[in-house]
Amino acid sequence: MQYRTLGKTGLKVSVVGIGTWQYGGEWGEEYSQNQVDAVMDAARDAGINLIDTAECYGDHLSESFVGKAIQKDREKWIVATKFGHHYTDYLTRDQLWTVKDVKKQLEESLKSLRTDHIDVYQFHSGDNIVFDNQELWTYLDKQKQSGAIGHLGISISNSHEGVLEYQSEKASVVGAEMLQLYYNRLDRRPESSAFEECRQQNLGVFARVPLASGFLSGKYKPGTVFPEGDLRSRRSQEQINSDLSEVQKIQKEEVPEGISMAAWALAWCLRDPVVTTVIPGCRNPEQVKANADASDLAGTLNFPG
Questions:
Q1: How much is the pLDDT for 218?
Q2: Distance between CA atoms of 6 and 292, rounded to whole angstroms?
Q3: Whole-angstrom Cα distance, residue 285 to residue 281?
C-alpha cells in the first residue's frame, strides 16, 4: 500500500480508503456487524488506514458499525466523518446546520464511533448559504482546540450551482484542510477549478464515488436495470445506458488487457498527485483486496489524457 500526505494536515493516509455509505442500508442491502468486521479486517491486511463515514448513513448506523469494528486498534486508523444532516428515512435527510444541531451531531458521532476524537470532520454537502456561517466555523475551531476534532474538511456536493467553485476557494478561510470531491473517469469537473485551489492552498483530496457508483467496475452493460431500493435506480434508464456505453468505450480504448477495470479506474483518479486518496465503497473483503491493487497500478500505468 502506498501513502500520501493529506494536504496541510500532515496525516499519512493510504491512497485507497474505505467508503461506508452502503452500511447505512441505502444501496439495496442491509449489513451486519460481522460483515463490516470482515471488511475492516481485510483493510487492515491490505494496509488501508482511512475510513470515511457520515452522520446520515443511517442514523449514525454506519458510524456505529465502524466504531465497533476498529475499537481494538482505533489509534491505527484515520477516521473521517461528516455533519449537517440527520437520517429520517430511505434517502430522506433533515438539514441541521445550527451550532446547537452540529454540537449534538458531533457528540453522537463520537459516541457511535467509540472514540474521543474525530480525525477529519467534514461539512457535508451543504449549499453556500449554510456554508457562510461564521458562528458555525468558530464553534468547530474551538472543537479542534479541545481535541475533539483533529482537522476540518468540506465534502462538496455537485447538486448545488456554484458550490464546487465557491467552497473550494473559501476552504482555507473557514479553516478546512481537505476537500472531498466527486471525481472519476466519468465526472472530471474538479479538474477545471477545484484542483487548482487544492494545489494553491495545499488541501488534501478524497476522491468520492471513484467508481461512479459501480459503473466503472466493468460489471454492468447497457440495458442493466437496477432494482428498486438501489440508489442507482433513481437515474433515468436513458442516462444509465449512456453512461454504461461510455464505460464500454473506455474499457476498450483505455484499460490495458489483463487489468481489472475497477482497479484501473481507482488508479486513474490517483494519477494526479493532487488526489490524496480514493474512497470506494466496499461490500465485502474481496472488493477490499481488489481495490487495494490500485495502489501499485497508480505508479506503473500510463494514462491517456
A1: 86
A2: 18
A3: 11
Model pLDDT for residues 187-231, shown as the tens digit of each residue: 999 998 899 999 999 999 999 999 998 899 888 889 888 887 777
Phi, psi at 61, each rounded to 5°: -70, -50
Enumerate the domain spans of the chain. Answer: 3-297
State how far the Cα of 243 lies from the Cα of 226, in Å rounded to an integer.
Answer: 14
Q: Which helix (H) or strand (E) holds 296?
A: helix 294-297
C-alpha cell at 10: 500532515
Per-residue pLDDT, 3: 97
Beta pairing, strands 204-208 & 149-155:
unpaired
Amino acid, res. 132? D
Task: For the beta carbon of residue 94, count every other beta carbon within 10 angstroms.
Answer: 11
Angle at 287 between CA 282 and CA 289, to 5 degrees: 120
- SS3 assignment for 88-139: EECCEEEECCCHHHHHHHHHHHHHHHCCCCEEEEEEECCCHHHHCCHHHHHH
Mention every residue, 6+ apart, whose C-beta is less than 8 A from residue 178.
Answer: 6, 7, 9, 120, 122, 151, 153, 154, 203, 204, 205, 206, 276
- What nine digits make up the cell of 28? 439495496
Residue pair 45/80 in contact by the 8 Å Cβ criterion: no
According to CATH, the superfamily of the domain at 3-297 is: NADP-dependent oxidoreductase domain (3.20.20.100)
| Dist CA 162 CA 166 (whole Å) | 6
8 with 254: CB under 8 angstroms? Answer: no
Q: What is the pLDDT of residues 228-277, one digit of tens each?
A: 777 788 788 898 899 999 999 999 999 999 999 999 999 999 999 999 99
pTM for this predicted structure:
0.93
